[in-house]
Every structure is written in C-alpha cells, then in structure tokens.
C-alpha cells in the first residue's frame, strides 16, 4: 500500500482539527475504505482514524424517545443493542456482510459512503433519521444526494444518527450473492402519522422513497394496498446481476413482503 | 514509524510499524505468525480472520495501529501449549474439514467465535456465520460437520443439500 500519515485522535474536536488538512480523510471501520486504498481508488495523504473516539460509540435513547446511535458504532453492536427498541433496524444490521465485517464496519461509515446498494441508507431514509455531525444536524430527506453523494462537507464527521422509532418496521434484502450487498432492499416504517418506504440497490440516483406506496400504505397498511402499484424501470440500475425491469419488479415484491412481515 | 503494543496469544508484544502496516502484515512479517493467511486481501474471503478482544475480524482490513492495546488471538493460539487441539481444530481433523488447508485458519477462528456466541448452532446458523469465509476445495459440507462435532452435535442426515 502507498504511504500516508496516520492519526488516531481520542476526541471529535481533535479529529475535526486533524481533518482540516486538505488531503485528509476519516477512517471508520475501514471495511470499504481499506480495500479502496489498496486499489488506489482513494489516495488521501493522511488518514484520521475515528476508532479511538469513545463519544461516538454506543446506542442510547434521548428524551424524545429517539434511538441515538453513535457514528462509530459497529453493525454488530447495533444488531445487539437496538434489538429491543427497534427490531427492524437491528435485523438490518445483523444481515450486513458477515460477522467479521459487522465487527468493524460502522453506521457512520456506511452513511458517509452512501453506496447505492448499502443497507443503512434505506433505514435512515425510511425512518426519517437525523444525521448529527460535528457541526450541524441534517434530516435524511436532505442528506442523501445520489450514489456515493451526501450533504456532508469535506472533513465533516458523523457523530450520531438519531432514529425516530416506528410502530412497526421491516427490511427486506434481496441478496446479491457475490457481494452480499442488497441487489434490491426495501425498508418500510409505519409511524402514527404515516408510512415511509425507502428503496436501496435499485436506482441510479441512489436510495429513494417510493411515494406512491407510502400514500397507499398510509391509508391501508396491508400488502393488498400495493396491488396494481408498479415502479417504472426507467432510471433503475441494469448490470449483470439484474436488468432495470427486474429491479423495478423486485421493489414491488419486497415492499409487499416487508409489509406482511411488519404486520 | 510508530510503536505499537498488543497482546498476541497471551504474550505482550510490541514493534515498530508504519501507519499503512496492516495487522496481518504485523502478525506475519513482524511476529513470524504465518498461520494467518492472506487470500483476497480485500475483506472478501476470511482467510485472515483473527480475534480482536474476542471478536472475529479480518486482519487484512485493519491497520496494526488500530489494534494497539488489544488482545489478539491467531490460529497459533488455538491449541493448548502441550499441542492438544481445540475442539474446533479436532472437529476439522476428525471430519476431514479441509483439503488444501488455505482457508482453514480463518474457518477455525470464525467457527470458534460462533460457538462462543452460540454453543449449539443449527446447520443453517453455522452456514450463515461462515458466510464471509470462502473455501475453494471442500464444498463446505465437512466444514459444517466439523463445527457441529465441535459443538457436540451430529450432522443431521438430510443436511447435505
Ligand atoms: C464483504 C463485505 C460485505 C458487505 N456487505 C454489506 C451489506 O450487505 N450491506 C451494507 O450496507 N454494507 C455492506 N458492506 C459495507 C460495510 O457495511 C462497511 O462497513 C461500510 O459501508 C463502511 O463503513 P466503515 O465503518 O467500514 O467505513 P470506512 O470504510 O472506514 O469508510 C467509508 C467512508 O466513510 C467515511 N467515514 C467513515 N466513518 C465516518 C464518520 N463517522 N463520519 C464521516 N465519514 C466517515 C470514510 O472517510 C470513507 O469515505 C460490506 C463490506 C464488505 C467488506
Ligand atoms: S485476506 Fe482478508 S478477507 Fe481475504
Ligand atoms: S481447504 Fe482449500 S480453500 Fe478450503
């Protein structure tokens, strides 16, 4: 691997200062970034590891009943510690990659990367989570801005992700067997004031909300409410794993499955 | 260069590393513990799995500096000092759970972590937990058998699909 500077600060403030250098990049669990560095698809001059910062790790609840997850919390910890409060989210975390990936990969890394096939973006968008950074808060509807693109500025750190907890939720992941990412994934979240449906893995513009399904499910939260609703194949990803039409079809199937699993 | 210290298989070790030194390089080249293998080098195959503070991690996808102060266990730490194999190692031996053996250190480390979390896993749970460990030789069947044997269970007759 090429040479770079390496820092491992213990506080958010020190990490933000270290990331002030133009050529610096944050390192979370490294499960995406380290392979990327090896291929030299990214070549920062300085890596700032976030793994020694205790204040961005762990799962807790705030006064308004939100589930607050530190940006440096691993998938394995979310799978364990969110299970009682938000089982839909815990089950999503438990199905990311494999056990070793889950012991390193973090929610902050996943949301910062915003891979179009990643799982967490679907949960964050469906539950209307708030991304709390070292400098501001960003609601999910403003945060995701297309494949691998987010509202984060250079050097901005995800300190926490704050999830409103739905009354019922479910994540359906149709696995792409080689990568173990989602070929298509659908997260359905039912709140007192309506239903949100977020789709990952399918669109060329990254994670998105399926608003027609949301309207139908907000009136009637049953799989039947989705009868006749389809997603146009236009703008869906087409690759050797599946055509745009196939992905569009899967969205309908998975949304129905998610609703029946959540009810 | 910076100094890193950790406990590896119960012994305190330290060494000079660069920021870019991967944990697997420190183990293999720094400490001569070549039991931990590198297959894909991109966190796909699991040949490099070691335990960090008891949890399985791919040593090709973590920098040595990140393991500073940690307790690391590698395949060399699995057998007892007198050479008695661990139950998982014995299971692999008894049930022909390996052919070329390249994937075996990672398989043993991952399976050992599974049995610590879940002492009596089902066949499906064994297969799911080993999802990140790829074997080109065995077709997995005898690996699953070995892990079940290590948990004191027998392979159900119908599990061969
Ligand atoms: C074999 C394998 C299978 C996988 N399967 C899945 C899957 O099924 N579903 C899925 O969703 N993902 C999957 N992943 C990806 C995994 O979840 C990664 O852990 C995750 O995408 C990146 O998180 P990380 O903590 O490892 O981040 P890193 O790799 O360290 O960093 C990724 C990016 O995020 C930035 N970053 C990291 N932390 C922060 C932070 N706190 N604030 C701001 N920026 C930050 C980094 O600068 C970098 O740009 C898989 C990975 C592997 C290797
Ligand atoms: S060598 Fe580490 S996962 Fe393949
Ligand atoms: S025994 Fe050869 S790769 Fe598994």
Structure in words:
- The complex is a heterodimer of chains A (263) and B (161).
- Chain A contains 10 helices and 12 strands.
- Chain A has 263 residues and is of the alpha+beta class.
- Chain A has 2 domains: 159 residues, Uridine Diphospho-n-acetylenolpyruvylglucosamine Reductase, domain 3, CATH 3.30.465.10; 95 residues, Enolase-like, domain 1, CATH 3.30.390.50.
- In chain A, a hairpin with a 5-residue loop joins strand 4 and strand 5.
- In chain A, helix 3 packs antiparallel against helix 4.
- Chain B is α+β, with helices and mostly antiparallel strands and 161 residues long.
- Chain B folds into 2 domains: 76 residues, Ubiquitin-like (UB roll); 64 residues, Orthogonal Bundle (DNA polymerase, domain 1).
- In chain B, 29% of the residues lie in helices and 16% in strands.
- Chain B contains 5 helices and 5 strands; from the N terminus they run E-E-H-E-E-E-H-H-H-H.
- Chain B has a 5-stranded mixed β-sheet with strand order 2-1-5-3-4, sandwiched between helices.
- Chain B is elongated and about 55 Å long.
- The termini of chain B are far apart.
- The mean pLDDT of chain B is 95.
- The chains are: A alpha+beta (263), B alpha+beta (161).
- At the A-B interface, helix 2 and helix 5 of A face strand 4 and helix 3 of B.
- Bound molecules: flavin-adenine dinucleotide and FE2/S2 (inorganic) cluster (FES) (2 copies).
- One FE2/S2 (inorganic) cluster binds next to loops of chain B.
- The site of one FE2/S2 (inorganic) cluster (FES) has 12 residues of chain B, from loops.
- Chain B: InterPro entries: 2Fe-2S-bd (IPR002888), 2Fe-2S-bd_dom_sf (IPR036884), 2Fe-2S_ferredoxin-like_sf (IPR036010), 2Fe-2S_ferredoxin-type (IPR001041), Beta-grasp_dom_sf (IPR012675), Diverse_Oxidoreductases (IPR051452).
- Chain B: This is Carbon-monoxide dehydrogenase small subunit.
